[in-house]
Amino acid sequence: MRGLAEYAMTGRRQAITVAVLFGLVPLFYLLSAAVVALVVLRKGLQEGLLVLLWALLPAGLQWLTGDTSYVFVLLGVALLANVLRATGSWSKALLVTTVLGLILQISLVVQTGYVTKIETAVGELMANGQILQLPQDGQMTAATPTEVVALLMSFYGAYHMLMLVSSLLLARAWQARLYNPGGFQQEFHNLRIAPGILLVLLSLLLASWYGLQPLADWLPIFCMVPMLTGLAVIHSVVANRKLGKSWLVMAYLVLLLMPPVIIMLGFADGAIDIRLRLNKLTKD
Fold this sequence. Notes:
By secondary structure, this protein is mostly helical. The chain is built from 15 helices and two strands. Helix 5 packs across helix 9 (156-179), helix 7 crosses helix 8 and helix 14 (259-272) packs across helix 15.
C-alpha cells in the first residue's frame, strides 16, 4: 500500500492513473477515492479536483449501470479531505460526514431507479425460494420483499458514511506513512468527538430509537460517529497498555455481535474522556 501511495504522489499523471485504474474495478473504488483524498490532503483542493475529475470517468460508467456509490464516495471524500486539511479536526470532519449521510439517505426519494433495482433484485431472490427472516417481537419471522427492501434502504446513508470514513482514514494513514511516520496512529488514538456534538447525536439517536419519524429511519447514521470513537478508545487503551492484538480482535467481535457496546463507549468517552482518566489512574 505504501508503494501505491508513494507512486501516486510522484506527480499528477501518476495520481490520475492510479485513481482511474482502480476506479474501473468495482471492488477497489475505495482505493481510487483514497488517492483523491490523499492528493487533497497533501497538495490542496485545487490539485485534488484535477484528479477527481478524471476519477469521475469510471465512476460515471458505474452510474450508468445503476451503481451511484462510487460517484458519491468520490465527491464526499474530496470534501471531507478538504475539511480535515483546513481545520485539522476529525471532529468537524466526522460531523460533515454525518450531514452527508443524512443527505444521501434523503436522496433516495429521488433515486427511484436505484430503489426499483433493489426491489427487483430482492423480489427475484425471494421468488427463487430464498426465505429471509427478520426479528419481530423477539422472534424470527419470514419477511416480505417490502420489509427487506425497507431494511436495506435504512442503511443506505450509513453505508456510504462507512465508505467515506474508510477512504479518508486510508488516505490519512498514507499521508502519515509518507510524510509523518507515526502521526496517524497518534491522531486516531486521540480521536474524540466534542461533547456538544455527541450530545446532539445522542438526542437524535434516542428520538429515533423511540420511533420519532423521520429520525427513526436514520438510526444507523447517528450510530456511526460514536462507533468510530469507541473503536479509537479501544485502540488507544490497547496500545498504551501494551495489551496485545488479541484484545483488538475481541473488540471487533463485540462490534459485530453487540455493536451498542462500542457505540455507548463512544458516547461515554465524549462525556467523561475515558483515556484521560485512565492515564491519570496510571500516573497515580
